[in-house]
Amino acid sequence: MSFQDVWRDVWRDVWRDVWGDVVGTQPAPADGVVVASAAVALALVATPSAWRLTRHVVTIAHEGAHGVAALATGRSLSGIRLHSDTSGLTVSRGRPRGPGMVVTAAAGYVGPALLGLGAAYLLHRQHALAVLWLGVLLLALLLLQIRNFFGLWSVGVAAVALFAVTWWGSGMAQSIAAYVGTWFLLLAAPRPVLELQSLRRRGRARTSDADQLARLTRVPGVVWVGVFLGATLGCLVVGAAWLLGGVV
């Protein structure tokens, strides 16, 4: 048997094992672990020192959602930039107005919440490893669209950390990572919306997604902020119900 045949067989076995983990189910963790993971995620959102770091995760999901929406509506994605101040920019080409541009602009602030909601559903169905592997896949795809060094660094670090837990972590570590990450996305998503409105009141967010949508649709920006807040809170309520289904 040639070296190529051996290498092909090894990777086929690895892929079979990974795919079995993705489509298979894993036992749900104890109720105390679910509640504790929610507490950890809340601390990552509510503690100012932690939030300055963890907000980068929300920005990654925010800009990734812009990118997915642009592609889904037929726009051409030019690239994504992530900055050290937790801001970001997604550039796409296409019609400057119309439904595609509206969907693309609206996707950012609701993206982290929708991602968290999807993860919560998978955890509700006992697919913890699927959550982790999908996270790795999405980060790897996003990495291809990053156009600045800090963005490459931040997405790369997140992808490597998530892959390490997924590949080498114990079953308990994988479950905890999946639950903490899901809780974090659900709990964190409303905070940037509140921060956005605070900036808007002080006249410091004239190019925000809400103000861009106001120019595109002639619906006031504050209404779009309300839509973002309602969507993120709705995802939090539904996602929490799925995650706590065995607790409450």
Structural summary, described in words:
The protein is mainly α. It contains ten helices and two strands. The protein has helices at 3-23, 31-46, 48-72, 99-124, 128-143, 149-168, 171-188, 190-201, 209-217, 221-243; strands at residues 76-82, 88-93. A two-stranded antiparallel ribbon has the order 1-2. Helix 4 runs antiparallel to helix 7 (171-188).
Rounded mean pLDDT is 91
The best one-word shape is globular
- How big is the Rg? 19 Å
The helix-and-strand class reads mainly alpha
Helix proportion: over 70%
Strand order of the largest sheet: 1-2
Approximately how much beta-strand content do the residues carry? 5-15%
Short structural description:
By secondary structure, this protein is mainly alpha-helical. Helix content is 75%, strand content 5%. Strands 1-2 form a two-stranded antiparallel sheet.
In terms of topology, how is this protein built?
Blueprint: H1 3-23, H2 31-46, H3 48-72, E1 76-82, E2 88-93, H4 99-124, H5 128-143, H6 149-168, H7 171-188, H8 190-201, H9 209-217, H10 221-243
Antiparallel strand pairs: 1-2
What keyword list fits this structure?
single chain; two-stranded antiparallel sheet; 248 residues; mainly alpha
